[in-house]
Structure formats: structure tokens, C-alpha cells
Amino acid sequence: MERSIITRAKSAEQAVDEALKLLAVSRESVQIEILEPGGRGVLGLGTRLAVVKVTVIDSGSVSALQSAGSQEITVPTAETSHENTETQIETLPVLNPASEEQGGIGIHNGRFHIQATGTRLPLLTPPPGAVLYRNGTQVDGKVSVSPGDELELESAPKVEAPIWRIEIDEACLRAELHVRPGFERQFTLLDCKPQANLVVPVSERRTFLPIPQAEVAGRLKELGVIYGVRAEIIKQACTSEEPGVFVIAEGSPAVEGANGTFSTNFETETKRLSPQSREDGTIDYREIVEFPTVIEGQVLARTFPARPGRPGRDLLDRPIQPRVVQSIELAAGEGVSITEDGRRAVAIRSGMPRMKHQGFRVHLSVLPKLSHRGDVDLKSGNIRFRGDVEISGGVQNGMNVEAIGSINIRGPIASATIEAAYSLIASGNLIGAHVSVGKRSEFFNQVEPLLLEIASQTQLLQSAIEQLGQTAAFKLNDIQQTGLGALLSVLLRGKFKALHAVLTRFSEQATKNEAQLDVDWKDYAHRLKYGFLDLRQGGLRDSAELDAFRRRTLELAESVSGPEDRPIFAELQYVQNSHVYCGGKVRAAKGAYNATIYCQGELEAGGTLRGGVYFAGRGIAVKEVGAPGGVATKLQVPETAVIRATRVMEGTVVQIGRRSFQFVEAASNVHARLGSSGELLLF
Amino acid sequence: MFAYQIHKSEEEAIVVFEGDLDIESGEVLEEDILPIVSEYPSVRLNFGEVYFVDSSGIGLIIRTVDELREGGRTVKIENVRPEVMEVFELLQIREILGEDVFE
What we know:
The structure holds two protein chains of two kinds.
Chain A: E1 4-9, H1 12-23, E2 30-36, E3 39-40, E4 47-48, E5 50-56, E6 71-72, E7 104-108, E8 111-115, E9 123-125, E10 132-134, E11 137-138, E12 143-144, E13 151-153, E14 158-160, E15 163-168, E16 174-180, E17 182-189, E18 192-195, E19 197-199, E20 202-209, H2 213-223, H3 231-238, E21 244-250, E22 261-264, E23 271-273, E24 276-277, E25 283-284, E26 288-290, E27 299-304, E28 312-313, E29 319-320, E30 329-332, E31 336-338, E32 344-347, E33 352-358, E34 361-367, E35 369-372, E36 383-385, E37 388-391, E38 400-403, E39 406-409, E40 417-420, E41 423-426, E42 430-431, E43 434-437, H4 442-469, E44 474-475, H5 477-482, H6 485-493, H7 497-512, H8 519-533, H9 543-561, E45 569-572, E46 575-576, E47 579-582, E48 585-588, E49 591-599, E50 603-616, E51 620-625, E52 633-637, E53 643-648, E54 653-656, E55 659-662, E56 667-674, E57 680-681
Parallel strand pairs in A: 1-6, 9-19, 30-34, 35-37, 36-38, 37-39, 38-40, 39-41, 40-43, 41-45, 42-46, 43-47, 45-48, 46-49, 47-49, 48-50, 49-50, 50-51, 50-52, 51-53, 52-54
Antiparallel strand pairs in A: 1-5, 2-5, 3-4, 7-8, 7-18, 9-12, 10-11, 10-13, 14-17, 15-16, 16-21, 17-20, 22-27, 23-26, 24-25, 27-32, 28-29, 31-32, 33-34, 53-56, 54-55, 56-57
Chain B: E1 2-8, E2 12-19, H1 23-37, E3 42-49, E4 53-54, H2 55-70, E5 74-78, H3 82-90, H4 93-97
Parallel strand pairs in B: 2-3, 3-5
Antiparallel strand pairs in B: 1-2
Helix pairs in contact in B: 1-2
């Protein structure tokens, strides 16, 4: 059977287009019959719509014009307002004049009437969406119908139930109701004139089915949600005719607090004062340097308490704990006392303040100051002091002055050894001296990488122990009695052999340098040894202790690599035949002769540098370098630094990184550095 | 709960453990079993009925194997249940004692 459609529109062209769209075919596959041309009406009154009949041509069909049935469709205008819960879809039938032979099916007062008058039976197509029964069985697709058939439309409404679900987020702070609204569709027959090929016309009534709020409330209860339920949102969701997601319960997150802080009340910088008048009335143009000092009774630091957070509540009405806040802990070293409330650290003697800040622990100490009158010589003996040292005289040949602090020497320094942890100020000349300022001891150099390795291995150890606890066959209860010793022994022998090796190396270093270690390091070394290596006392007790050990390891590693708590520098006058090492900046105000100066900061020299080797990590700025026809002088800096010299004599070598240059004749205003492609620039 | 059986032959002693190898059974192993079997040139430790171990038990197993071997005996551990083997694997017991102990 061919498909055909009769369409109406303002013009025949439009009508054909509509028909093609409805049939979903192209112009080539159809036969077009114009039933009414449209245009202005008879006698020029009104306009008439054009009516065309468009038939799809079957390949091999005999009669294109013979249509066994047809449908007329006017393009419907559907109502799209959302408040309307009813939509009506109607089809309008038209009697096909050439159908008497075939008979027809009509609907009158909601009942089917079947006439079979000719040789062919009428045909029936069930309505889309609705259910039609013929003699009790559901009709699928087009069927032919005989007069005795009982046709019935399903009158019971078709229910598309609403679909909803509740989703609770991981933090248990939000419950979302996802809804897809439901509808009930009810179809009723529309009366129509008999047709040979009837597509059953129906009208549809769509009713919105709200979600029963009680069901949602019940489900929430099942899930245990009792806090933060928003009834009005539930109502909104249940009565929503559009699908959507609604937040029907919301918990209150925890309010985080703040960690404790502290403030200090002393200077750590060395102060420089401008020229002073001397007692005899003359002006002392040398800069006076004052080391940081505190006096007895001075409050060195005070803490401000941590502010704890406020717990929240989740949907199950369980409290949500805020992060634990930490207070600052003040630790007293020598010369310091902490008030009973733990909030203030007070100096109990005058001297040089020292502060070590690691994480939440602030360690304060006041090291005393030693004032030595006169020279350091065989009579006075060597000086070794934990604190600042001031020497009013000089230092004689062969003597040692060593201070865990800063050293200030007014007189000349002969062939002596001076070692200062922070700084040296020498007002006299150095002749044949051996000076070391701020040299980090070998122990710390060695130990820093060990500590980092220990910390990371310990973390792996913690995971391994946790994993072990989760295996079916492993029991953990003996650890409560005997500690981790047995387990550590096995792990350090097998899986964590490497950790054992690092721990042993650290222990050896600590023993070797025992004299240098302060109480913090000694304590740590002890914990390490008896926690892991010497297990006679049971080793670490539990995983909490293991974790505390790991954190302490990181703290110590940080303290070694962290910034110095005081600047490192050497302030010198004239340096001759001496060897100077400085971890920071060096100033040789009057120049140097045949000296070796190696510093990690900047080297600044007045006067002349004549002969010798001078290396500075951050650059060199000098007045005059070299001697005519004399001793070779070498200035060297790394590739990122520069060398500036007002006057350079021939024979002087400057080296930047790996590029070096020897001056064959004198030069002025030298600015030696590496260019962008690594070439050596001199001016 | 810990019990054991020792099957002796001329060349070999076979110890069949019955129960958990933990801090409590450790004593029995050390004081009762070890003295008996250390006389035999070859010792087999059967773990077929061992379901649970703890760190003390593991330590003791290692010490036992070490001691026996030091005395010139050959030691074998056999029939380890899969759950207990999992623990052995995590602790790398096979590496510590050597593959030959596990055959």
C-alpha cells in the first residue's frame, strides 16, 4: 500500500513541503496531486487554502493515484504552558470518497462501528502511546478488522511512576534528592467518521503524580538522617514537574580553629652604631658593632594561645571534629626560665640570646658573654666558650680561641686559630692567622641526608606495620605487652635492611661527634639507638611512639638545613699570610697580602689584595688587586656571581665559574661576569 | 591454645605445631621443643595447623631456625597456610631465612 497525505497550506508549494516533511521523503519519490490551488476565492472574497495530495511512489507499484486510504493532517499548534497538566492531541479524519468498496471503521459516542461493505476489510492502526485491544488481545501495528471484532481502548490510565533517589555525599553533610517526575496518562476515544484505514484518534489527559513526601521522609529516616532536614525543600522536590536535584538535608561543617603563635622580644641582628666620641674627645670613626644581648629578667618570648575550632554536625547527627590545634611549646635552655603558665620565656642572666624554632617548639637559651682582659697568650691559656667572647687585647702565636657565639678581638691576631660559630670582628690585623667563622660542623653535613632518609623509611615502616595488622593471620596483641621490639627486629633484618643501615650510620656519627652535640641531639640519638638498634629494653613501644620519632627526625633535619638564627660574617682589617674561611660575608677593610680567603657570601676589600687566592660565593668587590711584576693574585667566584675591581694589575687572574682570564696589563673598572651564552665579559 | 607433636626417626625430627605461634606458645617452643629436636641432624617444622602468628612468634621462629642451623642442623619449614604465608611475605621471612628453608 502506498503512503499518502493530504495537506493544506497557504500555497500549494508550502502544502507540498509540509507533506514531504511529514512523509519524510524527497520530492523525487512522490506523486503530487493538487486538489485545490488556493489563492483568492471566488468573486475575490477571502482566501482559500491550497490542498494537495502527496503520494509516495513505491518502486514497482501499479497505480500511483489509487490510494486505498489517506490521512489528512493539519499541523497542530500544541499548548506548551507548564501549568496545564492536560495536553490534547487530536487527529481529524476525512472521508475518502473512493472508499465505499472497502468499508470503514468509525467511532461514534466513544464506540467503534465497523462496516465491511466491500471486498476488502478496513484497516486499523492503534494510537501511539495508548493500548488498543481487539477481541481481548492487544493490537500491535496495523491490522485488518472485520465487523464481528470487538475493539476496545484501554481506559485505565497508564502510569509512569515518579523516580527518585537520595544521594548522600562522602562527608555526610549533604543529602540530595534526585527526582524525575511521574505522570498518569489517560486516553479517550474521539468520535470520527468511518474510514477505510483508521488511525485511532484519541485525546490524552496527562496528570502529574507528585512524589509522596512521607516516602522521602521515611527513606531519610532509614538512612539515619536526622539533622539538617529541610522540609520545605522536600516539598518543593516532590511537587516539581521538572526533573532536578534538590538539597534536602544539610549538615554543619566544623569551624576550624587557629594554631598558637609566639612573639619574641630581642634582636638577633648585630647592630652597627655610627661613630662615637671617645673619652679623650676624639671621634672614633670605626663602626662599633654590638652583638645582640639580653639582660637578666628580660622577657624573651611570649606565646599566644591556640584557638580551638568548633565541632560541626553531620546528617546523622554525629559531631564533626575540627582539626586539632596546636599550641606553641616554649622550651628553656640554659640561662632561660619559662613561667609556670608556659606562656613566657624569661632570661635569668644577661648574655647572648639563642632561639631555635622547630615546628611548634621554640627553644630559647641565653649564653653568657665572656670578656677577656688583655691578650690571649700562654699565661691566659686558650679560650673555649659557649657564648660570645670579647678580647680586649690580641691573640698570640699558637693560641686558640673558640666560641659558640661571636668573637670580638680588639688587638692583633698572630699565628693563632680563631673559630667562631657566628661572627668575628677583628679590630687589629691578622698575621699568619687561621680563622674559621660559621663553619658548619662535619657532623651536620653528614647527618642531614641521613635524617631525611630515616624519616622517609620510617614512614614506609609505619605503612608496613599497618598493612601487617590488616592481614588475616597476624595478631597484634603482643605489642601491647612487649612493645614493637620483636617486630622491628624482624623488619630491620628483612624488608627494612636499608633503614637499619642508615640508623647505624647515624648512631656512629653521633657517637663520634658526641662532644659537639647539645641536649636535643643527644636525646634523639639515644631514642634512635634504644628504639631500633639496641632492643634489649623492648624498643619503641607502639606506633604512636614510632610516629613521634618520625616527626622529631624531620624537625631535626629541618633545624640543620633551616636558616641560621644569626648572621654569619667576618669583619677584618688587614689580613696577611692568613687563612680565612667564612660561612657568610667577609670584609677586609684594609686589604690583604698573600692570604687565602674563602667565603660563601660576598667578599669586600678596601686597600689592595696583593697575592693570594680569594674565593667568594656571592661575588667580590675590591679596590685594587694584584702587584706590578709581583705575586700572582687570583679572584674566583661561581658562574652566577661577578667580580668588580677598581684597579687590576697585570698578572691578576679572574675566574668566573670555569672561565678564567689573566690580565697581561693593568686595567681599570673591571666588571667580570659571564654573559648570556657563557662567555667571559670583563667590562 | 598451643600443642605440638614430635615425630622422631634416626635422621630427622618432625615437629607438627597445632595452634597459634604467638607470645604464649613461644615459651613452649623455646623451652620444650627446641632442646629435644636440636639433637637431630635434620628438623622439619610443620605449620599445617598454624592459623595465627604474632611478632613474638615470628621472632621466635627466626631465632629457632638460626640456632638450629648454627648447631649444624638442616631446617625446613613446610605446609605453611596461605594466610600465614602472606605474613611471611610481608616480613620477607623467606629472604631472611633463605629459600632453602622453604624448599
